[in-house]
Amino acid sequence: MQIPLRSNTTTQGRRMAGARSLWRANGMKEEHFGKPLIAVVNSFTQFVPGHAHLHNIGQHIKGLIEKQGYFAAEFNTIAIDDGIAMGHDGMLYSLPSRDVIADSVEYMCNAHKVDAIVCISNCDKITPGMLMAAMRLNIPAVFVSGGPMEAGEVDDRHLDLVDAMVMAADSNISDEYLAKVEENACPTCGSCSGMFTANSMNCLAEAIGLALPGNGTIVATHANRKRLFEEAVEKIIAATQTYYYEGNDKVLPRSIATRDAFLNAMKLDIAMGGSTNTVLHLLAIAHEAGVDFTMSDIDRLSRQTPNLCKVAPNSHYHIQDVNRAGGILSIMGEMERGGLLETNVNRIDGKTLAEAISEYDIKRETVTEDAFRRFKSAPGGGRNLVMGSQESTFKVLDDDREKGCIRSIEHAYNKDGGLAVLFGNIAEKGCIVKTAGVDSSIFQFKGKARVFNSQEDAVNGILGDAVQKGDVIVIRYEGPKGGPGMQEMLYPTSYLKSMQLDKYCALITDGRFSGGTSGLSIGHVSPEAAGGGAIGLIRDNDDIEIDITRRSINLLISEEELAERRKAEDAKGKDAWQAGERERNVSKALKAYASFVSSADLGAVRLID
Ligand SMILES: CC[C@H](C)C(=O)C(=O)O
Ligand SMILES: [Mg+2]
């Protein structure tokens, strides 16, 4: 059964003469009318190294689509560089930009009646924003990211921007050495080279099945990255044809991103020690897809899924090393061997996950030459800002599942996952910790609260010696509503490292973390302080007890005392549950966001009836 093209609305019938004349002015030819209209959804910007190399690729894709006889048109979304926006009020805009991106893709595709989309994403909010839009639109969609940056190199050691951030506040590091690190930490185009949020999300897009093998791990500079874009064109043409001309809805985003696909993606995230932001984004994408996927699923999965991979900041490995070890489908191959995945799910290339694993897990006899081509894609070295401009290869792949970058279940770092959801009287709706980044010696931690009502105050406290070994730093009124925008606390956690306090302190916040954070850093505390959460009732010197093994986090005061404090806070009327004095300019755009946004345990989606 044929499905009518959405684009027929503006290209068919006598009454559309005006729209058609505009399409002609856009370059549409007679033969394009009545055929699928494909949008190239790009996110090129010269503000973000993860996107600065995407200028030409959109037009390259348009050209390839038009060779197949279909009209394609490119538009752009915004993209914020979290690393540049970090640590000042610019970061208030980061999470809200996810929804701006989702909305803008929806606006363009619905206003112009697009039939299918190729999404060119990369950094933190772009991939989730576009995935949210794809779920809303539910038209054929394929995702290709700009690819990871190559790791920096100083004195034979691999490093990245987080090393530069930590060293910048460490008085033991000389100015000369810091300058050398700064110069070399970010050598190429692409998303920052560790298991940060961008790379985590691009790996998850691959796990869900909306992106092709290698999407998460082939470096931006490699020729095989450019090939991924070209393959994506083949796949979107095939998906568009089978959907509209044969009525095959298996290729639609909501048929691919099913509950099983979300569960698989979350399990992959736990196994690879992904950024905690993935929790927020998967919840939001599932919400748009109408899939029942909640924090309690994440809690359950985290108890069942071993941690098979540790990447920077949790080890010396970078994403390029995950590629050399066989990429995401090889991690999923290890998980499949342990019966941890539901592999009978569809992918955008028409394969099931079971088929994809059999072709791309480098440890299978059935592995293909094509898999080796992708996973041999190596960094080129040196400064290189051009997409697909080098063809270096790894001489040998890393197939050591005992001590290598990807471990088998038998040799897991931790049988109990790389991520945990904790509950307790200060997080009744849960909070998140990336256990892959926590030294197991502090899985149980008890300390005195050191309370800050803003990230800025916390940074000053940490660098100004207000924080001592054994403290639990509390940073609140930084949640989705309270910030607003739920800033990433990368500077506070990096400065704890600079001050050599990270192994002796815990940090809890209703804000969130970048993938560059490690240590006993607990975020997404829900409900947030601005939403009446008990985190707002903590006082300096209160005792706080954290037990990762038991998944608990508690303020050690009596229920009566907690109730008294709540009563006193509520009695403040319109001043209740507010940060109080702090210098922060919240624009009207951000206030509009804050008026709709939900709490972190719901993915910080906007609640609109
Ligand atoms: C290095 C941190 C990166 C810029 C980030 O924002 C993230 O991982 O979320
Ligand atoms: Mg980020």
From TrEMBL:
**Which keywords are on file for this protein?**
2Fe-2S, Amino-acid biosynthesis, Branched-chain amino acid biosynthesis, Iron, Iron-sulfur, Lyase, Magnesium, Metal-binding
User: Which amino acids does the record list as binding Mg(2+)?
Assistant: 82, 124-125, 488
User: Sites of the modification N6-carboxylysine?
Assistant: 125
Q: Which InterPro entries match?
A: Dihydro-acid_dehy_C (IPR042096), DihydroxyA_deHydtase (IPR004404), DiOHA_6PGluconate_deHydtase_CS (IPR020558), ILV_EDD_C (IPR056740), ILV_EDD_N (IPR000581), IlvD/EDD_N (IPR037237)
Which cellular component appears as one GO term in the record?
A: cytosol
Q: In which pathway does it act?
A: Amino-acid biosynthesis; L-isoleucine biosynthesis; L-isoleucine from 2-oxobutanoate: step 3/4; Amino-acid biosynthesis; L-valine biosynthesis; L-valine from pyruvate: step 3/4
Keyword Cell division recorded: no
Q: Where is the Dihydroxy-acid/6-phosphogluconate dehydratase C-terminal domain?
A: 405-604
Which GO terms fall under biological process for this protein? isoleucine biosynthetic process; L-valine biosynthetic process
Question: What EC number(s) is this enzyme filed under?
Answer: 4.2.1.9
Record function comment: Functions in the biosynthesis of branched-chain amino acids. Catalyzes the dehydration of (2R,3R)-2,3-dihydroxy-3-methylpentanoate (2,3-dihydroxy-3-methylvalerate) into 2-oxo-3-methylpentanoate (2-oxo-3-methylvalerate) and of (2R)-2,3-dihydroxy-3-methylbutanoate (2,3-dihydroxyisovalerate) into 2-oxo-3-methylbutanoate (2-oxoisovalerate), the penultimate precursor to L-isoleucine and L-valine, respectively.
Name under which the protein is recorded: Dihydroxy-acid dehydratase
